[in-house]
Amino acid sequence: LVDQSGSMANRWGGEAGKTKAEGVADAINRLVQTLVYRCAKGEYILDRYHIGVIGYGADIGLGFTGELSGGVLQPVSAIGNHPLRIEERVRRMDDGAGGLIEQVVKFPVWFEPLAAGKTPMCTALQAACDVIRGFVSQYPYCFPPIVMNITDGMATDGHPAQTAAELCNLASHDGGVLLFNLHISERGESPVLFPVDETYLPDDFARMLFRMSSLLPPPMLHQARVQEAEVAEGARGFAFNADLVSVIRFLDIGTRIDRY
Description:
By secondary structure, this protein is an alpha/beta fold. It is 32% helix and 25% strand. Strands 10-13-15-14 form a four-stranded mixed beta sheet, sandwiched between helices. A three-stranded mixed beta sheet has the order 1-5-6, covered by helices on one side. Strand 2 and strand 3 form a beta hairpin. Helix 3 (121-138) packs parallel to helix 4 and helix 4 (160-169) packs parallel to helix 5. It is globular and about 50 Å long.
């Protein structure tokens, strides 16, 4: 679930020249590419995931566009084979001698940045409920579906906690739906990642998102501790005031279901 309200056109704190909408789009495209790579076996992409996106702003955007339009959730093989386009981007790399070299890399794009309108988060969460209810009915033994809500502001269409609880009450035979919330802002302060309580959260909105967020299951808690040694037992899938690096790390941890 991706906030596409007008405020997403504002500059991302600490990210020179990049809006929040652009930064989030880049992070989502990197995540999708990573998930495709994880499922690649030789020339084939194994359908270990279904991936979907719901954007919420001036409109509610259900699913990818282009050749992937027509449904919110798509098997990862279809996604991997049908990006909107392939861009060439310049990546700076260590040259091994204390300097940097620039390398042109291929960057597939599935998701475009958009920023307009208000923040109908409740409507987006309800849309997710409808999609996942059908998915767990079709695949009752799947790993519990993971919903990631990326936002920079409060819902403008009600109080999302009740709809979030409805979403998390949906379940496969393996457990309840996992809802993770990722707040981004224009402030350059240090992000709060995977907290266990509300102590360091600055306002009611942040505390509400924290309470809406699911506990990290053991495999994800393990992955979080690999990258963030101080993540404690009882950590929730929540980040506040996240920068681009934190968003990428959060999305990666939140989609790792490796057994250990």
